[in-house]
Request: fold
Amino acid sequence: MTPEARDAWVSKVEASAGGDCRPKWDGMMSWQQLRAMHDEGHEIGSHSRTHAILPLVSDPQLEDEIAGSRRTLREKLGFEIQSFCYPNGDHDDRAVRAVERAGYRHAVTTRYGINAEGGSPYVWRRLDMQGSHARTAAGDFSAARVLLRLTGRLPSAY
Reply:
C-alpha cells in the first residue's frame, strides 16, 4: 500500500471500531520523562515523526520524518540527538543518505548480526542482549560472554 492508502485504511478500520481504540496504558512518554531518562544516562534517539515506511514516502516527507524528528527532539529536550532507528528496520539508500544529511552520527536497522569494522555507521546491525547472555551457568556476570555476544570473538585475555 502507498502511505496514503495505508492511512486511509487505518482510518476506516478505526471508524468501524468506534474510534481510536488504544488502551489507556498505551501512551507516549512525556518530554519531562525523556529528559529525566537522558539525565540518568540513557540515550534518546529518533525513530521518525510518524513511523512511516521510509522507502515508500516522497522526498519531502522523508526529510520531514528524519530531519524534522531530530529537530523537534532537540528543541523539546534541549540536547543533541545522535542516533536514528529506521521504523520497522525499513530503509534504502535514499533514507540512509537523508539520515546522514540530517546530522545523525549513526543509525540502526533491525538486521541481526555483528558490524564489520569500517562499515557504515548508518546501517548498524543489532544483537539481542538479554541478562542470560551476560551470565555464566552459575549465574555470575561474565564480561567474556558479553564481549563474545557483541563482537563474535573472545578478547585475547580469555
Summary: The chain has two domains: 29-126, 128-158. The radius of gyration is 19 Å.
